[in-house]
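Is this the right way to post structure tokens for a design question? Let me know if I should format differently. Anyway, here goes:
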């Protein structure tokens, strides 16, 4: 009588096979101090990495899954979506997986680079698969994908697969080392912009803001208890030209209450450049309306 297959052993074998088949997606970017970080082969000549983890250089040395060492040159980086794109030379050959769609409770496999051509693997579940959201740097992320797993810093930027082997995106570390996924759709949308311009243009007012309490006497009038005080302005920036001064408390933009900075950053996306914004500020105990034209954020800002 044949032995009954062991489901746990079958599951383990399937996971190992999945990692083995997907490790061609993984590359290690060598750092100057002997450490490395992970990146994902997106196309034969393109690598995608976590922008926040990537040192600011133009040229990098990369170890591919077969142990070969290649050169990669920065094509562009965007802190808003936390995406960096590198051009790989010579191009690598690998099978491009289909894009996956996250489902809460589904298994997720996060791969990283071990620095020598091998891969590391982390298994967890999709803890959240929410709608689009905006980062504090103003980047639009197509889905809020959170994973219930741990991730080493060297593994950040590696591919994240679903149980079928489809590509959900790349991993990144959020606040308190929360593991997030930069979705496939976001990366596909940002890559052409970075290849063309090296960055993603976003709106800019030229102000430094600090959350503060709205004076008690004005809370009923503005309909909120908190706003953002202007700590400084950039000379010749849009806000300074419109007459915004340090000490003003911004409470609304285009009629939308300014309660969270992320909402403010969301209104300064690429499409906002050149648009006139109506700012409501508290100045000298009164609510003042100020109009300013949103400019493109300077590269150094």
């Amino acid at each position: 009588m044949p032995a009954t297959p062991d489901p746990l052993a079958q599951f383990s074998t399937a996971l190992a096979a999945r990692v083995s088949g997907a490790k061609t997606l993984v590359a290690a970017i060598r750092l100057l101090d002997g450490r490395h970080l992970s990146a994902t082969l997106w196309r034969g000549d393109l690598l995608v990495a976590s922008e926040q983890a990537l040192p600011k250089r133009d040229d990098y040395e990369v170890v591919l899954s077969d142990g070969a060492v290649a050169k990669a040159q920065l094509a562009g980086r965007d802190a808003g979506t936390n995406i960096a794109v590198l051009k790989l030379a010579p191009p690598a050959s690998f099978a491009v997986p289909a894009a996956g769609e996250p489902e809460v409770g589904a298994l997720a496999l996060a791969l990283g680079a071990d620095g020598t051509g091998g891969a590391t693997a982390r298994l967890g579940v999709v803890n959240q698969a929410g709608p689009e959201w905006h980062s504090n740097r103003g980047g639009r992320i197509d889905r809020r994908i959170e994973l219930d797993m741990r991730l080493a810093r060297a593994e950040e930027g590696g591919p994240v697969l679903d149980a079928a082997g489809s590509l959900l995106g790349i991993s990144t570390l959020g606040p308190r080392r929360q593991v997030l996924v930069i979705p496939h759709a976001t990366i596909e949308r940002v890559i052409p912009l970075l290849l063309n311009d090296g960055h993603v243009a976003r709106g800019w007012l030229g102000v430094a803001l600090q959350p503060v309490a709205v004076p008690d006497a004005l809370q009923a009038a503005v309909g909120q208890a908190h706003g953002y005080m202007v700590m400084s302005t950039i000379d010749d920036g849009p806000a300074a030209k419109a007459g915004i001064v340090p000490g003003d408390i911004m409470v609304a933009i285009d009629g939308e209450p300014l309660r969270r900075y992320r909402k403010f950053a969301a209104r300064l996306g690429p499409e906002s450049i050149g648009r006139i914004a109506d700012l409501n500020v508290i100045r000298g105990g009164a609510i003042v309306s100020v109009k300013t034209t949103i400019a493109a954020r300077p590269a150094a800002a």
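Format looks fine. Someone answered above. Worth noting: The first helix runs from residue 7 to 22. The radius of gyration is 23 Å.
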